[in-house]
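task queued by scheduler; priority normal; single chain, no ligands, no partner chains; default sampling; output format set to structure tokens
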Amino acid sequence: MDAYDRSVKTGDVAGDHEYLIRAALKIDTIREDLGSVGPVIARQIEEAMLGRRSDLDTVSAEAKAAKARKFVAAEKRLQERIARLHERLMEAKNDFHLSPEHISRAVEVALDLAEKPPLKPIAANDGENGSIFEVPVLPGSWGRATVGLDHPHTGVRRPITFDHEVAKGRDDVVLAHLNHRLVQMCLRLLREQIWKLDDVKRLHRVVVRTVPDSELSVPAVAVWSRLVITGGDHHRLHEELTLAGGELEHKRFARITQVGKLEALITKGSPTEPDRALFDVLKDRFERHEDTLMAAIEARSRDRLKYLENTLDRRMKSEIADVRTVLDELEASIRKELKEDGKAIQLDIFSDEELGQIKKDTQALGSRLARIPEEREEEKAAIEKHYANPVDRTFPVAVVFLVPASQSRIKQ
């Protein structure tokens, strides 16, 4: 603004022209921060044009703009962090196969095992069927799974959906996410069935599927396993299902290292009820190459552990940073309190008893403040121990035999 001639005044042509240019530049600068500055300086411009004002005062507006810049920057960082977290969430959903169809299937199987009425698909508002379900009346302890289905205002019992997109922006449908009570009870039942004894379990852990001859020339086997990673204090750090397997011939086992290929074969396969001769052949080959197959499963677990090392390291550093932030805030709060207590002791408005209590509180706060540096190191060491020397443990869960369609009656 110093480049303009301040000798001219508003009220004459030259002065008005300069004043308008200066106002326009001010507006343009502040608009970038506040979006609209009409309410901020419109009255000043009007007063200047009427000769009531000789200068444009934007100090307060610029102060607001500076404050707004801080909020805009913080908001931008927050949005970027949310975007990164959402991206990680989507990656986790893909890695763990947490699709609405899979969750729906798990609930369907669990209700069948528990001998409870199935979910009933109902038509959505757009006519699409299969994404919204009516929950039946569930007796006994399963009744807890229906808590929250009644609308809080109308009291009408609402259906559920496993799809976040279907539930978005709606209150007439309840989202059955992974932590929903119905889903949790179903998953708990399925986990229980996996580890039950063979004579009482109702969930089979072996299945045979036929695949097109163009996809597979010899029988193959795929094993789903539960991978648990524990840290230095034997606390669980991570858990997931892994897939490993390979071609299962009479004399050799050839591992399929591409997990995507195994998943594609399983997806393209069709369930079949094998005859006794076929199942005996598959069982014999499985037992013959069991040690090699287990080695492939362990190798897959080691691969996953190596892949997750960076993730676990980031999580450890994040937890250390969170603890440090909490303790830093506590330290700052105690120092502020001690400063205020010091001022209070100097005043003559407290009785001797009250002053004695203030001194005791001050001493206690001082002792707590002195322990914070040591506590930082202790918390850091505990977290590092928690993540130290991660170990993978693998528990096979289910076996899928894949047989070419033309070999549905193979011979050994």
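post-processing summary
- Residues 265 and 282 are 17 Å apart (CA to CA).
- The chain is about 55% helix and 15% strand.
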